[in-house]
Amino acid sequence: MAKILVAYFSASGTTAKVAKNLAAATGADLFEIVPEKPYSSADLNWRDKKSRTTTEMNDESCRPAIAGEVADMDVYDTVFVGFPVWWYVEPRIIDTFLEAYDFSGKTVVPFATSGGSGLGQAPRRMQTLAPDAKVLAGGLLNGHPSQAELKEWVENAR
After folding, report:
1. Which terminus of the chain, N or C, has fewer Cβ atoms within 10 Å?
2. How far apart are CA 85 and CA 42, in angstroms?
């Protein structure tokens, strides 16, 4: 039987809620991608050109450190990777996560929450960071999708 991991980064708690429901709906293990240095509300102010998120997103090579690690990534066949959309792509901490593990032969399914944009180039970028994985198109999971809705989304996402 395929083993599934739902790994997620959530800056405000919105993505966390969806990730927890997705893990429950699929019987997956759950891993929170926690920044070593937590984001403050000032850090998250995307209107401030000097905020931490703005400077990170303007630096393609930025890789914020993660506190903790997945105990045994090798056991997972499918990894759902959740995040809020920042600047039309995944936050740089997701890049850190993807570069930290060998995703060879795994299926990676991006999912995101967003206040107004789609996944943009995130799946394409994620494929370059996990070149030996099969990165699917994924999708937005805004609102409060039910477990039944999430199960249906998972079936259609594969």
Report:
1. N
2. 18
Q: What's 35-72 look like in SS3?
A: ECCCCCCCCCCCCCCCCHHHHHHCCCCCCCCEECCCCC
Token pair 């991006």 in the structure block, residue: 110
What are the chain's domains? 4-157 (3.40.50.360)
What global pTM score does this model have?
0.96
CA 70 from chain centre, in angstroms, equals: 14
Q: How far apart are the C-alpha atoms of 35 and 38, rounded to whole Å?
A: 5
Tell me how far apart the alpha carbons of residues 135 and 129 are, in angstroms, rounded to a whole number. 10
Q: Are strands 4-8 and 78-84 parallel, antiparallel or unpaired?
A: parallel
pLDDT in tens, 7-55: 999 999 999 999 999 999 999 999 999 999 999 999 999 889 999 999 9
